[in-house]
Amino acid sequence: MKPKRSLVYFLLLSSLALAQHPSTHKKAAKAAPVTRPKADPALTIHQSALIVDTHADTPQRFLDENFDLGQNTPLAEGHIDLDKIRQGNLGAEFFSIWVEPEFKGHYSQRAMDLIDSVYHQAARHPDKMTMAFSADDIARAHDQHKFAALMGIEGGHAIENDMRLLRDFYRIGVRYMTLTWSNTNEWADSSGDIQDPNVKHHNGMTDFGKDVVREMNRLGMIVDISHVSDATFYQALLVSQAPVIASHSSSRELTNQPRNMTDDMLRAMTNNGGVVMVNFYSAFIDENYRKASSDPEKIKQRDAEVDAYKKAHAHPDGSPVTYDETAAIEKKWATQFPRPPLKSLIDHIDHVAKVAGIDHVGLGSDFDGVTSLPEGIDSAADLPKITQALYQRGYTREQILKILGGNFMRVMRDVEATAKRLQAERKESDALSFEDIELMVGNRVNPAQLIDRVNQHGVSFDLTPERVTRLKGQKAEDSVVDAIAKARKK
Ligand SMILES: [Zn+2]
Q1: If you measure from the C-alpha of residue 340 to the centroid of ligand 1, how many angstroms do you get, rounded to a whole number?
Q2: Cβ atoms < 10 Å from Cβ of 297
Q3: 79: CA distance to ligand 1 center in Å?
Q4: What is the whole-number distance in angstroms between the Cα of residue 64 and the centre of ligand 1?
Q5: Which helix H or strand E contains 116, and what residues bound it?
Q6: Which pLDDT belongs to residue 197?
Q7: Does the N terminus or the C terminus of the chain have fewer Cβ atoms within 10 A?
Q8: Is a pLDDT exceeding 70 seen at residue 182?
Q9: 227 C-alpha vs ligand 1 centroid, how far in Å?
Q10: From ligand 1's centre to the CA of 83, what distance in Å?
């Protein structure tokens, strides 16, 4: 974050070193050019970069452990604190607002609490960090040598099937939403349970789910396709008018995890103009680690241990025992498998760069959300090692800057520009959206009046069978449904 200052220090130190050795100094003065120890070129690139990481689960630590970013974190406990951020030159982080499905009935409340915990950190450390809500905010924070904190919701269930909540989350600063987490919600399928016959699936997304994507486009909230099922992925790309991101996903070609992206998906991301932010988790980037850690017997033993802990430590108020509380068990369990080499992570970045293109790859660490990281990457402080490895593979300065943050910044600006355009267009059209109709039906607007409005303004959507069911479920009269079916489409 402080390229200029460190360069000054470096020059100062080298001149001091020369001053202490008069003979060297003399020699250097006589023979031009002056020989100075050469700066590590990879480190120079790293220190000059604006680095954006799009996924860290630290808010659970803020909220459930009372963790403060100003505390130095032992490596066994966490991957991110202000000191590690500075050492790694991390410029901006998307803190994940991850709502555990166990919070059923309280999803939005839990999301609000996590959001509050991020603001709280920024308020506690105003000299070192700041909240950011746009690409310009990130750039400005970088210029001021401040760490930029952003927020993304992980798991569309957090909006509780309510478009108004989605808008509220945008208003309080959420800038991306992962359409699903590992759980299929009521409008989009997840890769996490797509094989589970007990879960009601939608063949991708429902009409409401597609409307969620459209509304995110209009708001300027980035559509995040990490975790979703393949069908949801392709449908989201068809519907979205703005580039999308995978905030923390790796390559399925290299590591056969259903949550990773196939080469075909990577190529679809190229066409979409989006960016795939590569996840660092050992089980997503290394086939050996994935196989070892997916041994059903070992998983069974771990799950039994977690369940026993949950029973023994049930909360008196009935609130769920959080992942944060059982994380220590999972972390200890993970140590039985040897960590993969750093090369495995670099292979994934390299693969995405080759298949999707150098303009479509970035970093989505999943710090504080995973139990194992490749060798050498213990925390955010080790980010320079990634730059070093890319440099050694022949990546140029310009390419590395794109991977470290440039590509994401382009996508965020694209999403912002699309939102501006859509808002301007929408203002000109007075056609009723499905949501307008739902609100009127829900508010018991007189059917004759409603039909008048439909005839006068027209509608902006197709009346699909799913929408008919939704309207009838809200007791819309048949005459209203008929009028919509016959209305002008704009
Ligand atoms: Zn995740």
Answers
A1: 20
A2: 7
A3: 15
A4: 18
A5: helix 107-124
A6: 96
A7: C
A8: yes
A9: 7
A10: 24
